[in-house]
Design brief:
Pfam families: DUF1272. It comes from Thalassomonas actiniarum. This is DUF1272 domain-containing protein. Strand 1 (22-24) and strand 2 form a beta hairpin. The protein has 102 residues and is α+β, with helices and mostly antiparallel strands. It has helices at 33-38, 84-94, and strands at 22-24, 30-32, 52-53. It has one domain. The relative contact order is 0.23. A three-stranded antiparallel beta sheet has the order 2-1-3. The protein is elongated, with a radius of gyration of 14 Å. The protein has two helices and three strands.
């Protein structure tokens, strides 16, 4: 189950569970759309994969036990360990390769 991390790992923008600008990679690294487009160039600085919009977990349990009330979002903030220069150099290696082929 997704952690639903609370922030962009680069700029630290709040990304609540219903944020429509939260993006994740296959390892659930979480960034805002602006950072994915302008800083990361659709290359996860941790794994090199691409990003997809993060699903929004339902607020209301339409099925018993399935909603934010039962599976709460994470509260621990995560930050990338890479600086801007390192991110740019890493993304330059992969940004021209379609994420499906990385």
């Amino acid at each position: 189950m997704l952690e639903i991390r609370p922030n962009c790992e680069y700029c630290d923008k709040d990304l609540p569970p219903d944020a429509d600008d939260a993006m994740i990679c296959t390892y659930e690294c979480t960034f805002c759309q602006q950072c994915v487009a302008e800083i990361l160039e659709n290359v996860c600085p941790n794994c090199g994969g691409g990003f997809t919009p993060r699903p929004i977990r339902p607020k209301t349990a339409r099925r018993k036990g399935v909603s934010l009330a039962y599976q709460q979002a994470a509260t621990k903030r995560v930050h990338t360990k890479f600086g801007l220069d390192e991110i740019k150099a890493f993304s330059a290696l992969a940004k021209t390769i379609d994420p499906k082929a990385r």
